[in-house]
Automatic annotation (TrEMBL):
One Pfam family matching this protein: Zn_protease
Superkingdom to which the source organism belongs: Bacteria
Annotated Retropepsin-like aspartic endopeptidase domain residues: 53-182
UniProt cross-references to InterPro entries, sorted A to Z: Asp_endopeptidase, Peptidase_aspartic_dom_sf
Descriptive protein name: Retropepsin-like aspartic endopeptidase domain-containing protein
Length: 184
């Protein structure tokens, strides 16, 4: 009789061990079972990026303008910005809107915009006081892509480039080679 209890206990232990091995293998723990670690996901190759390699500066096109705007690519900036003048907020249908003027420095073309405010952004500046800016969603073209992205409205008159493209535009679309210019 003792022998049968021992055999039943032994069989249950073997079944439990086999079930554990099967579940452990199916759970995706290949490293523990095979001793070989899984490869980390590979980063996107430059050929996988829609714009490929772009330079430190590139041309961007805004609707309503014939000439492009010179844009500086800044991987350190979270959000893009554009040189906006005569910025005035107003309310439309109970929501905050903004009216502003954009001037193309090259062609002197001008265009007034009226857009809903996407959000108010706190801009942290190195060695300067933080400022608050309004942001809007703007449609523009860079290379062969037409995109709609968030831009803060800033007085960039003293800057060399009227448009700054930050990570919200270039992330997942391009790799930046700062030694190159106007590759698109």
């Amino acid at each position: 009789m003792f022998f049968f209890y021992f055999m039943e206990y032994y069989m249950n232990l073997v079944l439990l061990l086999l079930l554990s091995v099967v579940l452990f293998t199916l759970s995706g723990c290949r490293e523990a079972v095979s001793g070989v670690p899984e490869a980390p996901p590979r980063p996107a190759a430059v050929t996988d990026l829609p714009l490929g390699i772009i330079g430190e500066t590139e041309a961007v096109y805004l609707d309503g303008f014939k000439a492009p705007f010179e844009a500086r690519i800044d991987t350190g900036a979270t959000t893009s910005s554009i040189d906006a003048r005569e910025v005035r907020t107003f309310e439309r249908d109970g929501k905050k809107w903004v009216r502003f003027l954009v001037v193309n420095r090259t062609s002197q073309e001008k265009r007034n915009y009226e857009l809903p405010v996407a959000r108010t952004v706190q801009i942290k500046r190195h060695e300067a006081e933080s400022t608050t800016r309004l942001s809007v969603m703007l449609t523009f073209r860079i290379g062969h892509l037409t995109l709609e992205r968030e831009f803060t409205l800033a007085d960039r008159e003293k800057f060399e480039y009227p448009v700054l493209l930050g990570r919200n535009v270039i992330s997942g679309l391009a790799a930046v080679d700062p030694s190159r210019h106007n590759t698109l």
